[in-house]
Amino acid sequence: MAALRCQAVDYVPMAFHFWHSPPRHPNTTWTNERERLEFYQRREWDARVEIGTPVSPLPEVQVEVRYGTLDAQPVLHQLWHTPAGTLEERLRVTDDWPSGDRNANSPVGFYDDFRPSRYIEFPLKSASDLATLPFLFPVDNALDIDRMTSAHRKAKALAEEFRVPLLGYYSAGMDWLIWLYPPEETILRARSDPAMVHSLLDQINAAYRKRLEVLLELGLDAVSRRGWYESADLWSPRDFREFARGPLVEDIRVTHAADCVFIYLMDSGFVPLLGELGALDFDCLFGADPAIRPVDLRQVRTALPGKSLWGGISATLHLGRGTPAETERAVEQAFDSCGRLGFVLGPLEGIRHNWPWDNILACERAWRRLRKV
Asked: How confident is the model at residue 100, as a pLDDT?
């Protein structure tokens, strides 16, 4: 927490996580959160406990799930029946679709990275569909609050036992535009019908802010907010100002009022937005991959004075595809570029099942050698 607040530390933390969906990395032998924290503790890795912010449809929403074919390819056809109308969508079911999502008896939720490139028919087609949003993304949902309260109780106990931070993680903002539409479609709609896009985001942001406020009242050390798809990989600085900045300002204000750290996630496409990011009052930028599109991390540090940086290395290119020697060199470059004040070493992306363990050990080895302040 001191590192995230740009305060003095005795060593630079190293904090990363493993991809949670199967197949998991063979070295992730734990079966529950306690065992994971014990594993991290044995290796002296810096850990955190995270709690999510579910936004679930109200009980009166009924989802009708059908499977068919189009040009001999499986197609998922879902109808979301709400008191304000029905949304209809169709998606191509490809071989790499997560197997758990292909159960014909279970609906596929909107929160899914596999949606955008597989849309045949997207759900929100016109302004008349917006009436369904209070039922699909309700601000108040007692079931969600009960789930969060129960999860928080368990998470807080573990965080206190292992003396690690408790983080609340949530996914408001423009990321939802990329889940609810194909990317090209959502960018065109932001240009042609910004009022509809604002209305959509207003409802979703309000729902997540309510859950954020509940978690902050229950007690957190930090808030971690997704910004994967708010970057200049997709949007211009003008778009960021119009659709992302206002909600972020309010979420940061609410978080700081609770004396919590605000962490903003953005892995790539951040350089054109450094001016916008520097004007926001968040505490830590989590991500900043230096290798996907080569980035000088010194430039990031200069553009974000007073903000900590959590990252420094590329998950995919250093840990996933590099050699141990290349990984060690990447860690050395990260320390050289980022310094030791307000720096946490570790990529934003989770470590995948097929990434070489030798690269993880090389990262750990270089970190142990360089971490002391």
From this structure: 63
